[in-house]
Design a protein that fits this description.
Layout (H helix, E strand, L loop, with lengths): L4 E2 L16 E2 L6 E4 L10 E3 L6 E2 L4 E5 L2 E7 L4 E8 L5 E8 L13 H6 L2 H11 L5 E4 L3 E2 L8 E5 L10 H4 L4 H12 L6 E6 L14 E6 L7 H8 L8 E4 L1 H13 L5 E7 L7 E6 L5 H4 L8 E5 L6 E3 L11 E6 L54 H4 L7 H9 L3 H6 L7 H10 L6 H14 L1
Parallel strand pairs: 1-14, 2-17, 12-13, 12-15, 13-14, 16-20
Antiparallel strand pairs: 3-9, 4-6, 5-8, 6-7, 8-9, 10-11, 10-15, 16-17, 18-19, 18-20
Helix pairs in contact: 4-6, 11-12
């Protein structure tokens, strides 16, 4: 185990409604969806099924024409009841009416010893055809990795510091052998190290005992749990470098594929937020319709449902679908009201990073839990340099100048200022504290797209 990485910069957003570590009983949703929009960079997805077809869990549903070998598979077995498209026939969702008992496609099983002895090409072929490959994300750009590439290292973060995040140790309780098998598998894909970031503030962390990987204890405020922050301090990305990242859940899913010979999209998710009556955990499958979990479990009528966390998640409806990479659903009030001089009235009830006159939340320290809504407390305005971005970014990167370089489409400046090391989640906290109300995550993605396509 390496020395503890102590991060001083950052900001913890303590919100009310953290999920109790309790697995609640609930009927499974009737429908599930695979959403191509979950996969950044996917281009011209080609649908492989039609309405009325029956599928098994692990049956390929689509592929990207730019990387045809990687298949995106059904999370459950059942009947395809709708292929939903948007403007210009953009593919939005493939919806499945699930069977009562999930039936999986059979794949070859491996023992732990066989994983170690197998050829890399055999293991990769199984992963790209079974549906687990999209768990592997490439840095730079934050897109699904190309199986033809070889990364210099692979990173896994086993804790999440984002608001109301699911406890990964609780989510993967009992899955330790699958996680270990997944790590053994990933080690075959790189000549470098498999690096695991663990929470240094938790004693006897389960993930600290994983073999065949380099363990890195990390301590600090959000975004300490972001894998991009860990990469920056442990094995930085330069121009021409490739690093792959996998979520802890994705590692366990890969391990389960090899040990049990099936694509298992089951997952434990956290339902959290101030508007949830009973914030707790539920076992379901990737792409689940959230209606069963929120039905009669939400206070108020004007609420926002978010697949993921409030910083980087996706707004969905009460009958919307869980994102492929999301481990939580968050419910908070909609900010449809207006407050006269709301920003200047003295109060300790509002959360703010800034020590402004009207926002005295800093006096409460980091222990108080806040109820926040979606009100932006102002409109978009001219870009103001306050130096605050650097205070919440625990990386040797200057976000203010990086954003200006993106706005100017200055490729050399973008590269020299560290754009290769960032994706949306790494700048989300800057967006939260930005007094100018800029959509910084969207701006960063535009810059990454410019660089990638140049």
């Amino acid at each position: 185990m390496s020395h503890t990485l102590k991060l001083k910069k950052g900001f913890d957003i303590n919100l009310s409604g953290k999920a109790e570590k309790k697995l609640a009983a609930c009927d499974q949703p009737k429908t599930f969806a695979l959403k191509p929009t979950d996969f950044v960079g996917i281009q011209r997805p080609k649908v492989m099924v039609a309405v009325g077809d029956t599928v098994k869990a692990g049956t390929p549903l689509l592929f990207c024409k730019m990387m045809e070998e990687v298949k995106y598979c059904a999370p459950v077995s059942g009947e395809i009841i709708e292929i939903k498209r948007g403007d210009k026939r953009k593919l939005l969702e493939i919806i499945i009416l699930a069977d009562k008992e999930i039936v999986s496609e059979p794949y070859k099983k491996f023992s732990a010893a066989e994983i170690q002895q197998a050829e890399k090409s055999e293991l990769v072929n199984l992963m790209i055809n079974s549906g687990v490959w999209p768990n592997i994300i490439q840095r730079p750009y934050g897109v699904v990795a190309n199986p033809a590439d070889t990364p210099k290292s692979i990173f896994v973060s086993t804790f999440d510091t984002s608001p109301l995040a699911a406890d990964i140790s609780f989510v993967l309780k009992g899955e330790e052998k699958f996680f270990q098998a997944g790590i053994d598998m990933l080690k075959k894909l790189t000549p470098g190290k498999v690096n695991i970031g663990v929470n240094a503030d938790v004693s006897q962390d389960t993930f600290s005992r994983i073999n065949n990987a380099e363990i890195h204890p990390v301590s600090g405020k959000h975004p300490a749990g972001n894998v991009g922050v860990q990469i920056h301090h442990i094995d930085p990305i330069a121009k021409g470098d490739l690093v792959w990242t996998v979520s802890a859940y994705g590692v366990a899913q890969i391990g389960k594929l090899f040990l049990e010979g099936k694509y298992d999209a089951s997952k434990v998710i956290a339902l959290a937020g101030s508007e949830v009556k009973n914030p707790q955990y539920y076992k379901t499958y990737t792409g689940a319709c959230i209606n069963k979990f929120v039905e009669q479990n939400v206070t108020g009528d004007e609420v926002r449902f978010v697949s993921g966390n409030v910083l980087t998640g996706e707004k969905i409806k009460s009958d919307g679908y869980l994102g492929f990479y999301h481990q939580q659903v968050t419910v908070i009030p909609e900010g449809t009201h207006s407050e006269f001089l709301g920003w200047i009235l003295p109060t300790t009830k509002k959360l703010s990073f800034h020590r402004a006159f009207g926002l005295l939340s800093f006096m409460n320290g980091n222990k108080k839990e806040y109820v926040v809504d979606t009100n932006m407390m102002g409109e978009h305005r001219a870009f103001v340099q306050t130096g605050v971005f650097e205070k919440v970014t625990p990386m040797d990167i200057l976000p203010t100048y990086l954003i200006k370089a993106i706005l100017a489409e200055d490729f050399d400046e973008m590269e020299s200022l560290g754009i290769y090391e960032m994706i949306e989640e790494d700048i989300a906290l800057c967006e939260f504290v930005d007094v100018s109300k800029n959509n910084l995550q969207q701006l960063l993605r535009e810059g990454l797209t410019l660089i990638k396509n140049s």
